[in-house]
Amino acid sequence: MIDLYGMASPNVLKVVLMLGEVDLPYHFRHVNMIAGDQYKAEFKALNPNGRVPVIVDQDGPGGQPFTVFESGAILIYLAEKTGKLWPTDLRQRHTVFQWLMFQMGGIGPMSGQFVHFTRAAPQEGNEYARNRYFTEIHRLIGVLDRRLGETAYMAGNDYSIADVATWPWARNHELLKLDNYVEYPNVARWVAAIGERPAAKEMIQTEQEIRTHDGKAFQGATADDMDRFFARGKYARVLA
Ligand SMILES: N[C@@H](CCC(=O)N[C@@H](CS)C(=O)NCC(=O)O)C(=O)O
After folding, report:
1. Are 18 and 74 in contact (CB under 8 A)?
2. Which of 82, 94, 171, 173 is the most exposed place for a label (fewest CB within 10 A)?
3. Which residue among 4, 5, 11 has the greatest number of ligand 1 atoms within 8 angstroms of its CB, and so is best to mutate?
């Protein structure tokens, strides 16, 4: 059995989608970010970076428990464990890695920062940062759109962990202000196609269940709790 630590966020939903795709059972362990559980010693023993997702595979290599953090690494681990969603051919596998890294180093962090400056820190004075991330998201989605104009999926004809990593972010066209993909018809086609997969539908259902846990965590959150969660105000400093 696998323990998945997380909350309702695209990086966690990548793993939910992957576990559905490869048909592995798991226990979801909610991490209360509002209470700052990600900074507690118990959690940092699993991920020294204090971020979700994390998995603990109780049946890891050699039959021993194995912990993996960083969503991209988790997808690679699960693909290797099950032999699914990555090709055996070396060229094809490394094409998958390239597009996986494109998500991990580009679409993911840029979207995360854009959402921070639109939702958590929308105040005047932050326009430069907001515009900077908005421009970069559009540039990256444009790259993705051109790619998907040539291939069915990110790494070629086959659905892979690169798509699993990117879909939970890219489907959020409202959050990312992508205007329903009017400029990106190939991304629109790909978002819709993956949305038809049973594992994607299951992911959306699970997301609602996780949001119920998140909602309880947010209930009664003080202004100070919110500042800590968004690393702003007096928390705009290194916490590690
Ligand atoms: N590169 C990491 C990013 C993980 C990450 O930023 N997770 C967010 C949720 S999407 C988090 O744990 N935030 C908690 C916090 O900021 O304190 C990954 O892909 O796993």
Report:
1. yes
2. 94
3. 11
Tokens of 159: 């659905």
* pLDDT tens-digit series, residues 36-85: 999 999 999 999 999 999 999 999 999 999 999 999 999 999 999 999 99
Q: Mind listing the domains of the chain with CATH numbers?
A: 2-84+216-235 (3.40.30.10), 90-196 (1.20.1050.10)
Q: Report how far ligand 1's centroid is from the alpha carbon of 51 (Å).
A: 4
pLDDT in tens, 191-210: 999 999 999 999 999 999 99
Query: Tokens 């966690």 belong to which residue?
Result: 12
- In this structure, the strands spanning 26-30 and 54-57 are unpaired
Which residue has the CA at smallest separation from atom 5 of ligand 1? 51
Put simply, whether the predicted model's pTM sits higher than 0.90 gets the answer yes
Ligand 1 mutation target, pool 51, 68, 115, most atoms within 8 A of CB: 51
